[in-house]
Design brief:
Layout (H helix, E strand, L loop, with lengths): L1 H41 L4 H26 L2 H15 L6 E5 L7 H8 L11 H8 L5 E9 L3 E8 L2 E7 L2 E6 L4 E5 L9 E3 L7 H8 L9 E7 L3 E6 L4 E3 L4 H18 L8 E3 L7 E3 L27
Parallel strand pairs: 1-3, 4-7, 7-8, 10-11
Antiparallel strand pairs: 2-3, 4-5, 5-6, 8-9, 9-10, 11-12
C-alpha cells in the first residue's frame, strides 16, 4: 500500500510538473501572440486588407519581372506591330484623305504623302512624320493631321500667301513675304504681282514691303524691283521708269519719301523719263531718252538735276 502511494504520488508529482511546464509554455505562446495581435490592431487597416495588399505586391513584383523580360527581348514592339496588323485587317487602315484649307496649291502632293506611308494602320501611323513631310511642300505654312476612324486621315493646311514673282537664273517662281519658293510659273501665266530680280532677292522681299510702306502712293504703281549687288534696290514702275535708291534701310526709305513728294508736285512718273538716280544724297539725276531735253523745271526738288551720258552703274 505504501509503495502504491509512493508511485501514485510520484506520478502525480510528474504530472503536476508537466502540467506546470505546459501551462508556462502556453503562457509564453499566448504572450507572444498577444504582442503580434496588438501590433496588427494598432495599424489603421484590417487584417483582410493587409492580406490583399500582400497579394497585390506579389502580383506587382511578378508583373515587373515579366515586363523587364519583355523589354529585354523586344516583345512590346512586336506586340505593337501585331496589334497594328490586326487593326489594319479589321479595316482600320488609311483609305481616304480629307484635305482642308487649300485654295491655290495642288492637293496631289498632300495625297501622295498621306497615302504613301509604308505603315498605313490607323493605330500606328506616325502623324508627326506625316506632318513633317507636308511642311516640306512650298505652299504649306503649317499643317495639322488627325485621324477619323475607321479609315480617314484629315489634313488641315495653312497656305502661304504669294506676294511677288522671283526671277533668277532664267526661272520664275512665286514667293511669299519671307522669300519661300512656292512654285514655278511661266512668263505667259505670271500673276499680277511685282517682279523681284537678282540673287537673294527673294530673301529681301520683306524688306522691300517695308520700304514701300514709306510711300503708300507709289506702292500700287510698282511693277518690279531688282536687288543690285546684294545691297540696294532699283525700283521699276508700271509707267516704265526706274528709280535707283541708295544703300541702307534708312537712306533708301528717306530717298523714296522724297521722290514720292516730288512726284506729287511735278508728276515725275509717266513723262517718259528713263531713270531717276538718287544714290548720291547730294544729287537727283534724271536720265532722259537719247536726244530729248527736259524743258519744264521741277518745282520742289531740293537736289540738282542732270542728264548723265555715262552708262548705268550698280
Amino acid at each position: 500500500m505504501a509503495e502504491a502511494r509512493i508511485r501514485r504520488g510520484g506520478t502525480a508529482r510528474l504530472s503536476s510538473a508537466r502540467g506546470k511546464a505546459t501551462k508556462g509554455g502556453r503562457g509564453r505562446t499566448l504572450k507572444r501572440q498577444s504582442s503580434i495581435d496588438r501590433l496588427l490592431e494598432s495599424l489603421p487597416i484590417s487584417e483582410a486588407t493587409l492580406q490583399r495588399l500582400a497579394s497585390w505586391a506579389i502580383v506587382a513584383i511578378f508583373a515587373a519581372v515579366l515586363i523587364g523580360l519583355a523589354m529585354i527581348f523586344g516583345l512590346p514592339a512586336l506586340a505593337q506591330k501585331q496589334a497594328a496588323e490586326i487593326a489594319a485587317r479589321a479595316g482600320f487602315e488609311v483609305e481616304k484623305v480629307e484635305v482642308r484649307g487649300v485654295e491655290r496649291m495642288d492637293e496631289m502632293p498632300v495625297y501622295n504623302i498621306a497615302l504613301g506611308q509604308v505603315d498605313r494602320s490607323m493605330l500606328s501611323l506616325d502623324l508627326p512624320k506625316v506632318r513633317a513631310e507636308m511642311l516640306k511642300l512650298g505652299w504649306v505654312k503649317d499643317a495639322r493631321i488627325s485621324r477619323r476612324l475607321p479609315d480617314t486621315l484629315v489634313v488641315d493646311i495653312v497656305e502661304r500667301d504669294p506676294v511677288a514673282v522671283w526671277q533668277h537664273d532664267g526661272q520664275l517662281h512665286l514667293i511669299d513675304v519671307g522669300g519661300a519658293v512656292l512654285q514655278s510659273v511661266t512668263a505667259s501665266a505670271m500673276p499680277d504681282l511685282p517682279l523681284v530680280v537678282g540673287p537673294n532677292a527673294n530673301r529681301q522681299t520683306a524688306g522691300l514691303n517695308r520700304l514701300m510702306e514709306n510711300a503708300p502712293s507709289l506702292k500700287p504703281m510698282l511693277a518690279g524691283a531688282t536687288w543690285v549687288g546684294n545691297r540696294r534696290w532699283d525700283l521699276r514702275f508700271q509707267s516704265g521708269e526706274t528709280l535707283s535708291l541708295p544703300e541702307g534701310d534708312k537712306d533708301s526709305g528717306a530717298a523714296l519719301v522724297n521722290f514720292a513728294r516730288m512726284d506729287g508736285v511735278n508728276r515725275l512718273l509717266g513723262r517718259g523719263i528713263v531713270r531717276f538716280d538718287m544714290r548720291d544724297p547730294d544729287r537727283f539725276v534724271l536720265r532722259l531718252p537719247q536726244g530729248r531735253v527736259e524743258e519744264k523745271p521741277m518745282d520742289g526738288a531740293d537736289k540738282s538735276a542732270a542728264a548723265p551720258t555715262a552708262g548705268e552703274e550698280g
